[in-house]
Amino acid sequence: MNMRVDFPAPDACTGGEAEHLVVEGLRRWLAGYQTGNISCWEDAWSLYAGRLGVARARVAVSGLSAYARAINGWAKCGFCLMPHDCPRRCAHEAMAVEALAAWQRGNREAATGIVEELVVSPGLPSTLEATAFFADSLRRVDLRLVSAALPPGARQIPRTHAPSLTRH
Q: What's the pTM value of the predicted model, to 2 decimals?
């Protein structure tokens, strides 16, 4: 039997907190792939558990890990990342958030279009599945993403790195 458990959001997870958690989680998780250092994943867990509590973090980090794994494995070019805790977002980070926000809004066409810009075509189905899983995981813990404003020209990112390499 599949039981769904929804967790209410604490007051701290408002005003862009969901977007912040997604970006910082991706930065840390993808850095773990890049460096092979498990402490990056532990940092992501600590961030989520500290902000959401352990039960809610389990749900959200499960989605985060699937999404980051898909992006890491299928990215068209090195997925550009800003340093941890940087207040700015690069185009790749903005697109990753926007794909999730579009999915949460029910705009599957927009989410698919964004994911198509981020990953190579063989990875599209698995990355869309991971996008749906993470977006739904965030929704289950009552984290709603607002539409991220993509920087001008964000969808025309030049290919500068080999697939599956991340840059930090």
A: 0.80
